[in-house]
């Protein structure tokens, strides 16, 4: 007796065989589907826990739905984690991703730091998602450090997660490969200026390794009393770049000149050191700094922490300063070589360590208007107008030359130095604006006055 199926006659044995074959195929497909979904779930879990997670996964916005995000959050809360105190953050935003801003920073640590703050503002203004920035690895310092080697990536992302809603339509990715063209210092909306502060003073937190080492150095200094941080920009590259050779031997001057010509991106080659110094455009020498600190009545027993690289000329050039202030120290003399082993050949990480110590010093004295000097100055203003002595280099070199030539007595020299710097101690002041010459006006990050209305201003940024 035959069985009718789809208009054809089949014997019972063939029907049974076909049924078994179909069942095997269905079971194979079901098993494969289960395995694939298991792999997806496992990969997602691993991606959230591995050390590369922040760069590969967390650097891009979440594509989860609100329900999925809530489920993941519930799972994570069930897992025991170390207690870490962090500032209250806004709830995570769930949104559709439409575009990205990629940023390749250039310059030293503090030039890149300020640029990152500006890039967050640009991302918000354009309504795009900012990918974790790429740091400069091709400049003079040749530092291989990545963003996550210096800054806490997780903190950076979560502290800014309510600022970005991507709406780019025409182009999905915008890449800015240089960041040394700054936003305007003045004339921007108040909320934009305060966002720059929020990024600088809250989102850009150094890694736990850098912060812990910084705290160790600060504790060591505090055990011996108050300390002054001297940002002594007298390294070889600074002198070669600026063309300033005051006090250098003919051989050293020749060496610095060769170095300047060796780097094509240093555009200015023929430099008159005498003229630049006369107009206050050179970093102060260690000898000039020693005179100024004594004239300002800085206690000779004060600890002087040198926040800088290797001083050009070594002990010979530092002799006047160490004679007047015997308690001159640097991170290399306070810490063991093993403590700095992981920071060697990573200039940005070494600069981050100096940055932390500079913030906590009783007095901060920069000898040149570089990016670190300006950014630290502004950060110390934000911390309650901590004492920062802003040296008038043009006036100082004129007085130093008169004093060393014998035409000015010490008491006259000291008195004039005090008078000129009485209102240059980092106190509250209005940022000078020069609309037609923006490069000559006061730098926003040196005096973020829009953010200095009170100690709790950051909570409202």
User: If helices are DSSP runs of H or I spanning 4 or more residues, what is the number of helices?
Assistant: 18
| Spatial order of the strands forming the largest sheet | 8-7-6-9
* Distance from first to last alpha carbon: 85 Å
Proportion of residues in β-strands: 5-15%
Tell me the radius of gyration. 30 Å
How many DSSP-defined strands? 9
What's the domain count? 2
**Average residue-wise pLDDT:** 79
Subcellular location: Membrane
Keywords: Carbohydrate metabolism, Fucose metabolism, Glycoprotein, Glycosyltransferase, Membrane, Signal-anchor, Transferase, Transmembrane, Transmembrane helix
GO molecular function, one term: glycosyltransferase activity
Organism: Miscanthus lutarioriparius
Explain the overall architecture.
With 461 residues, the protein is α/β, with parallel strands linked by helices. Helices cover 46% and strands 7% of the residues. The chain has 18 helices and 9 strands. Helix 4 packs across helix 7, helix 15 packs parallel to helix 16 and helix 17 runs antiparallel to helix 18. The N terminus and C terminus are likely disordered.
């Amino acid at each position: 007796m035959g069985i009718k199926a789809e208009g054809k006659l089949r014997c019972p044995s063939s029907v049974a065989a076909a049924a078994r074959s179909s069942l095997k195929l269905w079971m194979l497909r079901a098993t494969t589907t289960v395995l694939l979904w298991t792999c997806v779930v496992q990969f997602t879990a691993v991606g959230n826990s591995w050390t590369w997670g922040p760069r590969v996964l967390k650097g891009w916005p979440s594509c989860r739905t609100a329900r999925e995000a809530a489920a993941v959050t519930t799972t994570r809360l069930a897992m025991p984690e170390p207690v870490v105190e962090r500032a209250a953050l806004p709830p995570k935003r769930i949104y559709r991703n439409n575009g990205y801003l990629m940023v390749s920073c250039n310059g030293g640590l503090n030039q890149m730091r300020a640029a990152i703050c500006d890039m967050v503002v640009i991302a918000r203004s354009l309504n795009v998602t900012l990918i974790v920035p790429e740091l400069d690895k091709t400049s003079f310092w040749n530092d291989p450090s990545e963003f996550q080697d210096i800054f806490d990536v997780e903190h950076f992302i979560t502290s800014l997660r309510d600022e970005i809603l991507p709406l780019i339509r025409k182009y999905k990715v915008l890449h800015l490969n240089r960041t040394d063209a700054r936003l305007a210092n003045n004339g921007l909306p108040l909320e934009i200026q305060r966002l720059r502060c929020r990024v600088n003073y809250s989102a850009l937190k150094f890694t736990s390794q850098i912060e812990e080492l910084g705290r160790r150095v600060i504790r060591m200094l505090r055990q011996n009393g108050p300390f002054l941080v001297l940002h002594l920009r007298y390294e070889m590259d600074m002198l070669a770049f600026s063309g300033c050779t005051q006090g250098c031997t003919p051989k050293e001057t020749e060496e610095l000149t060769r170095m300047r010509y060796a780097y094509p991106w240093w555009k200015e080659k023929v430099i008159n050191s005498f003229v630049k110094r006369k107009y206050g455009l050179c970093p102060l020498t260690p000898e000039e700094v020693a005179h100024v600190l004594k004239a300002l009545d800085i206690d000779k027993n004060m600890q002087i922490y040198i926040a800088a690289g290797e001083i050009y000329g070594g002990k010979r050039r530092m002799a006047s300063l160490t004679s007047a202030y015997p308690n001159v120290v640097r991170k290399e003399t306070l810490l063991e070589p093993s403590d700095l082993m992981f920071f060697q050949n990573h200039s940005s990480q070494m600069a981050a360590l100096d940055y932390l110590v500079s913030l906590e010093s009783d007095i901060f004295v920069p000898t040149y208007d570089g990016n670190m000097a300006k950014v630290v100055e502004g950060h110390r203003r934000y911390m309650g107008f901590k004492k920062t002595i802003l040296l008038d280099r043009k006036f100082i070199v004129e007085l130093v030359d008169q004093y060393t030539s014998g035409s000015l007595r010490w008491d006259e020299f000291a008195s004039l130095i005090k008078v000129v710097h009485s209102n240059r101690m980092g106190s509250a002041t209005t940022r000078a604006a020069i609309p037609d010459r923006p490069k000559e006006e006061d730098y926003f990050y040196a005096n973020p006055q829009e953010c200095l209305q009170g100690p709790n201003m950051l909570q409202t940024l």
